[in-house]
Specification:
411 residues, alpha+beta, FAD/NAD(P)-binding domain, 7-stranded mixed β-sheet, 7-stranded antiparallel β-sheet, 12 helices, 30% helix, 24% strand
């Protein structure tokens, strides 16, 4: 049966563009089409990293991700950070390392990244406004048929699903790919926002410190008080609650555990415990010292004014002193909900990695199908990790989907 294309890639985000580039390199004669429902390519890349695009991190390990870490590591090892940096350099995009370990284009412009990726897609037919609304194999060993939202029907020998998850749906990442994957036999785990700001109770003191940031530690605790996850980093107080790298990193863990009664607890003096801070204050010999004066320079003034205002230490009762100490190192944060997919940087959950051959990114459920990127049940920390997953999984899918076509290069 004659097909319209040898390879159709659904979704032109970071993973889909990478898949297209490496598929074209692997099978230069293949008829490849890249389909995206958005009017312009790369919308999510363009808004990432505050418009600068945090391309990757200088060190990336499987432990930086949630999901099956052994499986994630297997994919990451096929395309390392060093290889990613070299790849971007070859495309004319130099990367610079910031103090946090994040790697950005030297231009500080995400547009540099998108333009380079699109240049490398030369020879690939790129179609915008081409949302795939239906998909299915044609016969037991035939090609895969795709139906666009406008009714156009296409066929392809091989398909790569790189549709993303549900985060920032205005960019076209609205979860539609999950339905396509289900149609082709895949299951989808529960999906929820990750790397997303958190909202607190109305009127809580946190909202009065909007704009203040602090190095802190957040822990998700079970209903019995057991620490499930603990992260340390920069925390930003906002008019609605918590944001900044620390809040975003901890968010998916709180969301995943909240139905079981989990709570969020903050330590604004990482490294200190109730006992160590209590002992320090007890040892203070200056009769005019206050808790705020002892801690001045270690915490923002606005936070000290909120949590540590008191008279001289010498005049405090033991219970009052301990109450303030606990407020500083074991402060419950009454989170009510997250800000949702509109504000989430990535999606948690998706298609289980157990349904993918991780040496090729081929589907174990449907012949001729490959999957990569955020549609899979993988999500990483903030800092370029999720892009590294997109580059690595997209490259693997593109290379092996192209090899499966058995098309020899033109002489």
């Amino acid at each position: 049966m004659t097909t319209d294309y040898d390879l159709a890639i659904v979704g032109a985000g970071a993973a889909g563009l990478t898949a297209a580039i490496f598929a074209r390199r692997t099978a230069p004669s293949a008829r490849i089409v890249l389909l995206d429902g958005a009017p312009k390519i790369g919308a999510k890349i363009l808004i990432s990293g505050g418009g600068r695009c945090n391309v990757t991190h200088d060190v990336v390990h499987a432990d930086d991700f949630n999901g099956n870490r052994n499986a994630v590591g297997k994919v990451l090892r096929t395309f390392t950070v060093e290889q990613t940096v070299e790849w971007f350099a070859a495309m004319g995009v130099g990367l610079k390392r910031e103090e946090t370990g994040k790697l950005f284009p030297v231009t500080d412009k995400a547009r540099t990244v998108v333009d380079a990726l699109l240049r490398e897609c030369e020879g690939v037919e790129v179609r915008t406004g081409a949302r795939v609304a239906g998909i299915g194999p044609i016969g037991p060993i035939g090609p895969i048929g795709l139906t666009l939202a406008d009714g156009t029907a296409l066929t392809a020998r091989t398909v790569i699903l790189a549709t993303g998850g549900r985060s920032v749906p205005r960019t076209g990442s609205d979860g539609g790919g999950y339905l396509l994957a289900r149609t082709l036999g895949h299951t989808v785990t529960e999906v929820f926002p990750a790397l997303v700001p958190l909202l607190v109770e109305d009127g809580h003191w946190v909202t009065t410190l909007s704009g203040t940031s602090v190095e802190a530690e957040l822990s998700v605790r079970s209903g019995s008080g057991k620490v499930l996850v603990r992260h340390r980093g920069s925390l930003l107080f906002t008019h609605f609650g918590l944001s900044g790298p620390l809040a975003l990193d901890i968010s998916r863990h709180w969301i995943a555990a909240r139905k079981d009664g989990a709570s969020l607890v903050a330590n604004f003096l990482p490294g200190e415990t109730f006992e160590s801070l209590e002992a320090q204050l007890v040892r203070e010999r200056n009769p005019r010292a206050t808790i705020a004066s002892v801690l001045r320079g270690r915490l923002p003034e606005r936070l000290l004014e909120t949590l540590a205002q008191s008279g001289p230490l010498a005049s405090l009762t033991k219970d009052d002193r301990r109450r303030i100490v606990r407020a500083l190192v074991e402060q419950p944060i009454p989170v009510t909900r997250d800000r949702g997919f509109d504000y989430a940087e990535v999606t948690a959950g998706g298609i289980p990695l157990s349904e993918i051959d991780l040496s090729t990114m081929a589907s174990r459920k449907c012949a001729g199908l490959y999957l990569c990127g955020e549609i899979l049940d993988v999500d990483g920390r903030i800092g370029g990790y999720n892009f590294q997953w997109a580059w690595a999984s997209g490259r693997l899918a593109g290379v092996h989907a192209a090899r499966s076509l058995h098309i020899l290069p033109r002489a």
